[in-house]
Design brief:
Layout: E1 9-11, H1 24-33, H2 43-54, H3 60-73, H4 79-93, H5 99-108, E2 121-123, H6 132-154, E3 160-163, E4 166-167, E5 179-182, E6 189-192, E7 202-207, E8 210-215, H7 226-238, H8 256-266, H9 270-281, E9 285-289, H10 297-310, E10 327-332, E11 337-341, H11 348-362, E12 379-380, H12 387-406, E13 407-414, H13 420-424, H14 429-445, E14 451-456, E15 465-469, H15 473-482, H16 489-510, E16 513-515, E17 518-520, H17 545-557, H18 569-574, E18 579-583, E19 591-593, E20 602-608, E21 613-620, H19 628-648
Parallel strand pairs: 7-9, 9-10, 14-18, 18-20
Antiparallel strand pairs: 1-3, 2-11, 2-19, 3-4, 5-6, 7-8, 8-12, 10-11, 13-21, 14-15, 16-17, 20-21
Length: 654
């Protein structure tokens, strides 16, 4: 699940402590250690919020039954109280009671393919080159830009992000380079080489399904310049003119159990094992793709999104990937470019911050041409393909083809307004967009659904995400009234504003945390930073989703029978997110996307720019009830109708 970013203030890491004697290597640790620990919310509070969140999405009978189960669960001395105490003990003993559990349950134990089902993609602005020279020049500059960002990570001078005067956890930035997921039979692992005695000095470059190890540092530790990288990329391109017959990278797109079995077969061979190890250790991967087939502008946009997410299939660019690699930058010959990343290491914001840095870097002119020094030929990574491995590759091709045909993805640029309009109405842009999504869904299906919007918990040490539940009693009241002719427009405006405020209040609740001088409220929207005086409500803590997950996992760990509230129909409905959404704002005019998390659902991601909004909507073709283009159309209509409603009823200036 992706977390959305806030507009944050950045300060160099070194400014966190006044002592100039502090070693550079201690800056990151000192910063991290100073962050507050993730609290365990009070049991009653989380259960009350759970019951409230169920109201718009389950029947009255189901709700009454769940209320009874909740009351039994939280009786004094009952199972809920015992599990709560177990969680509180865990919180005292660990740096973050949730982070390890979340990494395992959300990612490493997830057995579906990472392609489409887990790994997000990003489409960057189309570049103006249309030939090989342009492709390689841009790729070289991009590589130089990533290495420039890496220098800040290596020196621990990466600017710390602040929100409302509070520093955010920077740990995810230190996980995204020189790392890779490794398949396992029941659970995967993530290996990270950034802090090893001999950190990697190379990247992986893939062209025509062939992998190359490209050293990007000289022996004295200085990085290659873009001119020098360009020369190396030309060598790679010239020595891989014919596509490899066996696209070994396709294996990484498979179901995780299937890939784990094929992986063990693959690395039995010493040559293969060394090649795989080189890819895993590399700082990141660059994929030099064939052009995306030209079609109409709208279809082209969707095709490019597909290229970034899955490569377009074995006949196009899917063999140019190693999907377990945390970061893969994609540059195609037609100017389309972007990225796909393996989700276990980080949420969207650190990835987007890196992309913003790199795109700005690529725009810098080359003031001085670099001296051309003789550079060794990049090393081609060899694979010995046995009949068994060839068979595994063929099966992976077929499975990927089925997955690609099933994915329905639409990228929409909403041109009518951006975050400027809701801000002019004193409304949170994020909450406004979320209410438009609620309205669009209701107009199509005549009901509300469980809606996931990810919120970052990076104000806590090793914080990942929690859930903002956008479907509320207030949002349902608004969407029901919107097309009801018996409700006056004035009432509709009030219901809209109330629904937006309810979403804001939920967001605030997710993000309460203790400061040095009492509790302060952090509104994690890109439009406003809200700081309030200490309030009696602040004690409420965060949202209930991760807390309930923790109680469930605590029950498994304690080997107690699963409590009835987790076996209840309402719990299944609450966790079946037909709308899985994320705001991932960026300075760059780009958009992120990911597959739906349930077979009959949608994945929606958006980047609100000042005067337009970039949306991606995904669904599965195998579900007759969902359609990405239809949802995008209804979303556009909802946004326009909400604007008209507000414009027809301006607020009193008194």
């Amino acid at each position: 699940m992706l977390a959305f970013a806030a507009r944050t203030v950045v300060k160099p890491l070194g400014l966190l402590r006044p002592s100039s004697l502090m070693k550079v290597s201690g800056r990151f640790k000192a910063h991290q250690d100073a962050l507050p620990r993730l609290p365990v919310p009070p049991l009653k509070q989380s259960l009350d919020h759970y019951l409230k969140a169920l109201q718009p999405i389950v029947s009255e009978e189901e709700w009454a039954q769940t209320k009874q189960l909740v009351d039994e669960f939280q009786t004094s001395g009952g199972v809920g109280e015992r599990l709560q105490k177990g969680l509180e003990r865990r919180a005292r003993k660990t740096e973050n009671w949730l982070s390890e559990w979340w990494l395992k349950t959300a990612y490493l134990q997830f057995r579906q393919p990472v392609v489409i089902y887990s790994s997000p993609g990003v489409v960057l602005p189309k570049q103006d080159f249309v030939d090989l020279q342009g492709q390689l020049r841009f790729a070289a500059k991009l590589i130089e830009g990533v290495l420039d960002f890496k220098t800040m990570i290596d020196n621990e001078t990466l600017p710390v992000e602040y929100l409302g005067g509070k520093p955010l956890c920077m740990n995810q930035y230190y996980q995204i380079l020189s790392s890779c997921r490794v398949p396992g039979p029941k659970q995967d692992s993530v290996v990270n080489f950034i802090k090893t005695k001999k950190p990697p000095m190379h990247i992986t470059v893939v062209h025509n399904y062939q992998f190359f190890e490209l050293d990007v540092y000289h022996s004295d530790g200085t990085p290659l310049t873009s001119d020098q990288i360009f020369v190396q990329l030309e060598k790679i391109w010239n020595s891989s003119l014919q596509a490899n017959k066996e696209p070994v990278g396709i294996l990484t797109s498979n179901h995780r159990n299937t890939w784990a079995k094929a992986y063990n077969t693959l690395i039995k061979d010493k040559v293969n094992r060394e090649s795989v190890r080189s890819i895993q250790r590399s700082i990141f991967t660059v994929c030099l793709d064939r052009p995306v087939p030209r079609v109409s502008e709208d279809v082209y946009r969707n095709r490019v999104a597909g290229q970034m997410l899955h490569g377009g299939g074995s006949k196009l660019n899917s063999g140019n990937r190693w999907f377990d690699k945390t970061l893969q930058f994609i540059v195609a010959e037609d100017g389309s470019c972007g990225l796909v990343y393996e989700h276990a290491a980080a949420e969207g914001p650190p990835i987007v911050a890196l992309l913003d840095h790199v795109i700005e870097y690529t725009k810098k002119p080359e003031l001085v041409r670099s001296p051309m020094v003789p550079l060794p030929m990049p090393r081609k990574l060899r694979f010995n393909i046995t009949p068994e491995i060839k068979s595994d590759i063929e099966k992976a091709k077929q499975n990927l083809s089925i997955m690609i045909q099933d994915l329905d993805i639409t990228v929409m640029v909403f041109h009518h307004f951006g975050k400027d309009f809701p801000k002019s109405e004193k409304l949170s842009p994020d909450a406004f967009i979320q209410m438009a999504l609620q309205l669009a869904y209701y107009r199509i299906y005549g009901q509300a659904c469980a809606t996931y919007e990810s919120a970052s918990l990076r104000m806590f040490h090793l914080g990942r995400t929690d859930t903002i539940r956008s479907a509320s009693v207030d949002s349902l009241a608004f969407v029901k009234a919107m097309d009801d002719s018996s409700v006056t427009e004035h009432e509709k405006v009030e219901l809209l504003r109330k629904a937006v405020q309810a979403h804001r209040a939920y967001t605030d609740m997710v993000l309460w945390f203790p400061g040095n001088s009492g509790w302060k409220r952090q509104c994690y929207h890109s439009c406003h930073l809200l700081l309030t005086a200490p309030s009696p409500q602040a004690i409420r803590g965060e949202a209930f989703d991760r807390h309930l997950l923790g109680l469930k996992l605590q029950a498994i760990e304690d080997l107690v029978s699963m409590p009835d509230i987790f076996m209840d129909t309402s719990y299944a409905v609450a966790m079946h997110f037909n709308l899985s959404t994320s705001q991932v704002p960026a300075k760059t005019d780009c958009v992120m996307f990911f597959g739906p998390v349930v077979p009959d659902g949608y994945g929606v991601c958006y980047n609100p720019m000042e005067a337009h909004i970039n949306f991606s909507v995904s669904a599965y073709n195998s579900c007759a009830e969902t359609n990405a283009a239809r949802m995008a159309h209804y979303l556009e209509r909802a946004l326009l109708d909400m604007r008209t409603l507000l414009q027809n009823h301006p607020r009193s200036k008194l």
